[in-house]
Amino acid sequence: MNYLEILSLISASAAVKNLDKFDYFVRLALQKRISKIKIYEALLQNYLFCGFPNALFFLKRFHHLSGYKPKKISSVNTNRLKEKGIKTSKKIYGDKLEKLISNVKKFSPELSEWLIIEGYGKVISRSALKIKEREACIISVLTTQMFEEQLISHLYGGLRNGLKITQIRKIISNLSEISCEKEKEFGLNVLNKIKQK
Predict the structure, then answer these.
(1) For the residues of the chain, what is the DSSP string, one character each?
(2) Is the torsion defined by CA of 86, 112, 70, 151 positive or negative?
């Protein structure tokens, strides 16, 4: 199992609150000398998909398992975050970004702003993980949560940013390791749909 698969399983096991598997894969990652900052970043971004309570719980658990102490953060400049967010979201959504923003604005203007500033500017633009690594973890988490539209977007985002279909299939198939059989089948079906397009 490579580092990307392990990072994805750490994210997914946190998403489904499987403590035993979370601990196991964190320890495996540490044993294989996967960077603690990469693990931290994968868990930090889970707050976008699983909420603050989940991120707080599993970042604290990771801290206890690893002893990792993150650096202090710098101040936040909203305009700069928006610029970074637009740049990063274009890498993921390509020419579909404008349509996405327009669609979200119809039911929530706030979320359409936060999507760019919060999601892509503040979180996914962070440099400790490459977009490809982030997308692998996001695909894993969205598969466990069975959000088809978002999963499709991030499958395409992963492919645009260097993930191969075989890697994605393996990341989704690995969800068997955390007892997510139904979710794995869902994810593989969604992947097959986009392959046929």
Answers:
(1) --HHHHHHHHHHHHHTT-HHHHHHHHHHHHHTT--HHHHHHHHHTTHHHH-HHHHHHHHHHHHHHH---PPPPPPP-HHHHHHHHHHHHHHHHGGGHHHHHHHHHHH-HHHHHHIIIIIIIIIIT-TTS-HHHHHHHHHHHHHHHT-HHHHHHHHHHHHHTT--HHHHHHHHHGGGGGT-HHHHHHHHHHHHHHHH-
(2) negative
The structure's pTM equals 0.92
What's the chain's Rg over C-alpha atoms? 16
pLDDT at 73 over 80: no
- CA-to-CA distance for 92 and 100, rounded, in angstroms? 12
The residue assigned the tokens 């760019």 is 116
Site of tokens 């393996």: 170
> Which two structure tokens, joined as six digits, stand for 71?
């650096």
78-99: pLDDT as tens digits: 889 999 999 999 999 999 999 9
pLDDT of residue 71: 83
In CATH terms, is domain 3-73+129-196 a member of 1.20.1290.10? yes
Alpha-carbon gap, residue 154 to 183, rounded angstroms: 16
| Token pair for 16 | 């489904």
